[in-house]
Amino acid sequence: TKAQNYKITPEKGTLTVTALEGDDRLAVTVTAKSLQTTYNGSEQKVEGYDVSGLLKGHTLSGLSASANGTDAGEYASVLTGDVKIVDENNVDVTAQYKVTQVNGKLTINPVEITVKAADASKPYDGTALTANDYSIIKGTFVGDEGFASVTVVGSQTVVGSSDNEITDYELKENTKAQNYKITPEKGTLTV
């Protein structure tokens, strides 16, 4: 091809980037962090959030989320603030995104305690066998929290076996029932 046979005239083209609107905007999800833990007598906390759906080089700011609690229960971690998304040149591109916010939660579970009535045995002697003791076979109370009293009821006089049973318990004044899931187990009395 000979250049002298052609007259080439370049023309400029136009590149246009249009703003995304409505449902065409980019989807981004901000999820407040959640935490599941067990009661320990101290204040526990979850904070921060995770972001998914941002384009590479874009960053999200302006939000915060936290929840704190001491006693067993659920505490909401609510996202607060105003979302701002910028590109790698620090240009605000928030309007190009449809932001979905999902709150998180702090869940503090009660300590599981299993308390067992005592087992006991003796040869037959015509008197009743009783055993009012108990032991914690699973879990531990926090600090100086615990039982103020435990009622164990059972009696076996004749040859054979019967249940030794925890019929009631009372917690110390500083011990909140909501912080413990207490499961009593029967013991066995055998003559």
Put the structure in a nutshell.
0% of the residues lie in helices and 50% in strands. It is built from no helices and 17 strands. The strands form six sheets. It has a four-stranded mixed sheet with strand order 12-17-15-14, with no helix packed on it. The chain has a three-stranded mixed sheet with strand order 4-1-9, with no helix packed on it. A three-stranded mixed sheet has the order 2-10-7, with no helix packed on it.
List keywords for this structure.
0% helix, 4-stranded mixed beta sheet, 3-stranded mixed beta sheet, 191 residues, 50% strand, mainly beta
Task: Characterise this structure.
With 191 residues, the protein is mainly β. It has strands spanning 26-32, 35-38, 44-47, 49-52, 59-64, 66-69, 73-77, 80-86, 97-102, 104-109, 111-117, 120-121, 134-138, 147-153, 161-171, 180-185, 187-190. The strands form 6 sheets. It has a 4-stranded mixed sheet with strand order 12-17-15-14, with no helix packed on it. It has a 3-stranded mixed sheet with strand order 4-1-9, with no helix packed on it. The protein starts with 25 loop residues before the first strand and ends with a strand. The model has no long low-confidence stretch (mean pLDDT 94).
